[in-house]
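Record 1 of the preview.
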Amino acid sequence: MPEWAMPDDDKKSEDKQRRRGPRKATQKRLNNVALHYLARYSATCDSLRKVLTRRVDASARLHDTDREEGAEWVEALIIKFQNLGYLDDRVYAENHARSLLARGVSSRGVGMRLREKGVSGDDIDAALATARENFPDIDLAAAAALARRRRLGPYRRGDDRAERRNKDLSALARAGFSYDMAKRVIDAETIEDLEAMTETGDPADGPRYVSDADVT
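->
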């Protein structure tokens, strides 16, 4: 309900609540916070733990909540939502790895981003292995995806491709791809050649390369 539609008593109550700061944390309130968070965001166990722990810490400062008891509530809720299927770090890792690779993030970059979310090494490895079921060389596929998004290499229009080659190579290098990988993508003669290579992972079955002597 918008504030202008609230009765005066309700407005005063809400203003008073804002002045008081966060409400005292209880297991029930933390459960409601978790449900609200999971309804809005795809989360890892670690990210939900951080959200709930911040609530406990704020309650400890304002309401003298026992931090150890609050930490026990948080862990109990993590287990609860894992058992209910709302939290699954492996599924999270697989979904986000697929999305990041499609956006042109290298496998190394994918691993770094997932670790920042608290995903374990085993779950990251499993997610990348799942991605390889669709593309034998996931870094090649990711580099090609970035070239497509940024219109680099064979995706360039006009006659400026040779002139822009070094800039295109640098763009892939800054994204975390090796020089050899960048050359494979940027020097592919056509879009069709590049797409064929990403599907097979084998240069012999994919694009014909433009030699360094041909592109200066």
